[in-house]
Amino acid sequence: MAEQVQDKRAGKCEPGLTSRSVAVIGGGWAGCAAAVELARAGYKVTLFEAARTLGGRARRIETDHRHLDNGQHILLGAYSATLRLMKLAGVDRDLALLSLPLQMRYPPGTGGMDFLAPRLPAPLHLALALLRAQGLERADKLSLARFSTTARWMGWRLHADCSVSELLERFDQTPRLIQLMWRPLCLAALNTPPERASAQIFLNVLRDSLGAKRSASDMLLPRADLSALLPEAAGALVEAHGGSIRTGAKVRALRSIEGRLWQLDISGAAVGGNWSTYFSGAVLATGASQAAALLHEIPDCDTSTVCSQLTAFEPEAITTCYLQYDPATRLALPFFALLDDPDNYQWGQFVFDRGQLDAGQAGLLAVVISASGSAAEQSQDLLAEAVAVQLAVAFQRPELGRPNWFKVITEKRATYACTPGLARPANDIGLPGLAIAGDYTAGDYPATLESAVRSGVAAAALLKGAAF
Question: Under a CB-based contact definition with an 8 Å cutoff, are residues 292 and 307 in contact?
């Protein structure tokens, strides 16, 4: 419905403002998801992002050597909302992602294990993978089988949340299985050490991957950089539906105007300084602390409860160490698990051969360190040297200890600590025409791309269902 809406306090009229004009504040994966859903529903969407690149905490960055991601990510076949949104945005899944069967494979001779699920119907694929697994004793295999059977019988639900370590002890998991399987999976999925991680959230992830159809457990490695994987395609879709993308535009204040409009105060060179604009609805999809700051300053609105929840999150870092070798350098597989031992300066947990994902990155290895607070305290030179030596020893290839160049990227607020019973705010915070979105909102998953996308979709649904 095309109409003009007047702001009486400002004493001016906003030409072209309609009851279907919506702002999305934050161009991360949650904001992009909300923007796509609203644009497809016929709303005129303006997406504001303070950075120059869409993607938030999962984006492309420019370094001295080349464009790199601010962190190496891995998706799961269970990420239905993310895969759906990629399809809607016109992203070819087969070109954008390398699909691998569920696996946990360590370099041979390192004392790890080799677990590879065949592409067979569930749960046969897990049973056969366990039967064939190398590096696990009979007790380890029985322990894993017992865990899977009991978790299914429980419906993947706990009466009361506890830590992952407590859950594994309750399920009589062997120390070796915890070291080689459960701890790495917990760190990769929740970015929180097992002794502090939520067992219920961990079970939710296992339910939708190991406990679902075989394809849900597939591991999906991005071939494209993270901004190109979805955010840029989402931005293009929004523009194709008559919306606009404003990068380099920081929203400094958010105000409710007579319960009918939302006023945004914006600054940045991309918008020519400081200005205000008005919308019939808004999705607040910034980081948790930024969202709390904006909500706290809204006049005459009680947002104390949600602000308390938003400021209670404890940040967890993820470090990615990129090591460039001769382009002919190649690992036997696209990625391997690594035995980490921080006390002996072995920080790496997984290594990815980027050349097997993108021919333009031949010879580039990406080593991931989840929950990397202690590793990030090291100097970048010493950390990169330690990681290179770890690779050289693990693969018995001395040349891996001498990279041509390296780049260490630490995302200090990559996620939040996903602890037992953590209170997370709902998308609906009780303010008409406003919803929040982010991987920190209430949901089944930890702070993942899928969690962000699901939250963005839910926030958009709230606005579509509201009479504004």
Answer: yes
